[in-house]
Prior knowledge:
single chain, 7-stranded mixed sheet
Amino acid sequence: KRVVLQNVGLNRAYSGPLRYVMFTGIDVNEGLSQAHRRNTFKSNLFGQGYEEGVKTSVGCSYKGRVWSRKITSVAGLCEWCSQVGQKILNEAINVDTVLEGVLKPVLITQRPKLMPIAIEWPASFLTEPEWIVHVLFKDEEIPLYETSIDLLEPSETGPLKFVIHAGDRRVEYDLQIFSEEDGKGFRYVPLSRTEIFFKVGGKKKTLADWADDDPPIIRFVDNSYIENNLHIGGGSETPVPFQKEGIAAWDWSSVNLKSESQGEDRRTDSIQYHVLRQLKQGGYDLLFDDDSAGEAADIIAIKILDEKLSIELYHCKFSHGDMPGARIKDLYEVCGQAQKSIHWKEDVRRLIHHMKRREARRVNYSKPTRFEIGDMNTLAQVEKMARFFRSEFKIFVVQPGLSRAQVKTDQLELLGATELYLKETYNIGLGVIVSA
């Protein structure tokens, strides 16, 4: 699912000697189009995507070699060989159509006329340990796990603005896309006098310098996304609207629908406090308030089951109205947050280390604990189990500003697109909690 090819090699069979041509990056599209011509045949391909809820890569050559970029055990290698062998022997697979679902990058000269719903850190930041990456504001160096990147005033046609922030420190940027002969038709413009630096290991770069090779990713409502001035499509499958019957309606009569976070003083009329109160009746071994810049989710809930860890991420969002209704803007950001958080399934121990450092930093500043149920000893127990137990993830969007009785087609389509994205990538289920 969601394959993006990085290399396409072609042999051109003219009357003379064979000629080999390699296509990479944006030129992959040209390689794919030429691969259908009668005088060419594909020599080798390599790309990345998702299979059975795991991010993976695959390459193959005309001579019969198949490879993947992995680090695994000997047993894992044998299992991978067996899976590849089954595909090679499967005569039902049509090799002429296997690439039809490939996501193809397109060089653009203006921003897509689509609603952006999320912006993510550069891909390398999500694979490095969080304490390795630091964001340097004017007067302080802050670890990535205490820093957020978020869209700013998103719209279908306006500027692509975003903010990088930690506490009261914030720097705003505008991603500008334009036509340029050399193809570099983009720039990141700071909207304030100060600019931030990223520090990873010994490297220290501005956002603009870092983005040349490893840009932030902006996702749109149709599951497409951009990296700098490359627009990558949303996938081969058309999202099915979310089933209205699958939406859970809660009672929010004691809650201020415009109050999202409980904060360190645990505001009892907030959406987050109400969700935590309901979850405390669910038999969880660990409930963690992860709210604030750098969060994995507003609430992390973990149950220890029979040789399985059940992990739930809850994203809460305030209402744009005083009463529940059918406002599509109530769902844009919370659906974007759900899509941003899928990478935590890739390595459960990374999530646990994130929680450890977030709690330690909170306590070091003599502030209230983030634990609602459990403690650091519980978390250490979960970390040990994560080495051997399988993990099952589910992501919830919580928006009491949406009325299930009044929900409209465009809202169900947005929820359906989010559900499809979660399934196509890491095979994560989506839960939706709203008002009646």
